[in-house]
């Protein structure tokens, strides 16, 4: 059973220190554990390694940790929406390990499953594979990738129950479930914390992966890029 805390700062108390590796859920700005990210920012810890699909945008999501110069290294698959991130990378103040999106997902899943490494075809023959072990299987060359085990995992869920079982909503389900499994300690913030236990058929992340739980602050959901078109008039 996870311990429920009144705030993100309380949930993170005693866990944060300089140099941690933190895995963070989210897909773009969808499903970011914003309360927990803000509490990490407010703590002032430095030299962090962040493992996440992306680093948000300037001034939002994980971008606020870049604003505060708290990040030393990033393991991600996509960083194109954050100008500050690009500048810090070019300046040499932030180290970046690019990982194909599917490989990143599998690295986190493997870490959570106790699998230290695996082989994949993705990245073979590119700079991503440089310096990594290679092996041939059935006449095809593969590159070895290491599983990821983070010191701390931060996730955002739609609903949690008293046992820490989690349900996600829409694109929030893309990376949050994987992040939840790969942390030595996992903290979940949930939009709804139910007093009743969830239907087992609906659960995505079993509560055994979750050690700490908070109720997420209600806030307007952010959109990276709003694309709209003129509504066509219905034909007569």
UniProtKB/TrEMBL annotation:
Identify the keywords attached in UniProt to this record, alphabetized. Answer: Transferase
- State the Gene3D superfamilies in the record: Glutaconate Coenzyme A-transferase
Give GO MF terms, alphabetically. transferase activity
Source superkingdom:
Bacteria
For whether the record's keyword set contains Manganese, the answer is no
In which family does this protein belong, per the annotation? Belongs to the 3-oxoacid CoA-transferase subunit A family.
Q: What is this protein called?
A: CoA transferase subunit A
Please name the source species: Amycolatopsis albidoflavus
**Organism lineage:** Bacteria, Bacillati, Actinomycetota, Actinomycetes, Pseudonocardiales
């Amino acid at each position: 059973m996870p311990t429920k805390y009144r705030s993100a700062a309380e949930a993170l108390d005693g866990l944060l220190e300089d140099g941690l590796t933190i895995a963070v859920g989210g897909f773009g700005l969808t499903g970011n554990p914003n309360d927990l990210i803000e509490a990490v920012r407010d703590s002032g810890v430095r030299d962090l390694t962040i493992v996440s699909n992306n680093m948000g945008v300037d001034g939002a999501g994980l971008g606020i940790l870049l604003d505060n110069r708290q990040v030393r290294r990033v393991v991600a698959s996509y960083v194109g929406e954050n100008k500050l991130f690009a500048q810090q990378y070019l300046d040499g103040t932030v180290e970046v390990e690019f990982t194909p999106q599917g490989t990143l997902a599998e690295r986190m899943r493997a870490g959570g499953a106790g699998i230290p490494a695996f082989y994949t075809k993705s990245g073979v023959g590119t700079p991503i594979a440089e310096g990594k072990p290679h092996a041939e299987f059935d006449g095809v060359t593969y590159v070895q990738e290491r599983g990821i085990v983070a010191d701390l995992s931060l996730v955002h869920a739609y609903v949690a129950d008293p046992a820490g079982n989690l349900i996600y909503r829409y694109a929030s389900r893309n990376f949050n479930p994987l992040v939840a499994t790969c942390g030595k300690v996992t903290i979940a913030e949930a939009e709804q914390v139910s007093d009743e236990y969830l239907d087992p058929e609906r659960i995505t992340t079993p509560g055994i992966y979750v050690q700490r739980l908070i109720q997420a602050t209600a806030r307007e959901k952010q959109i990276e890029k709003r694309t709209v078109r003129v509504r066509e008039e219905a034909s007569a």
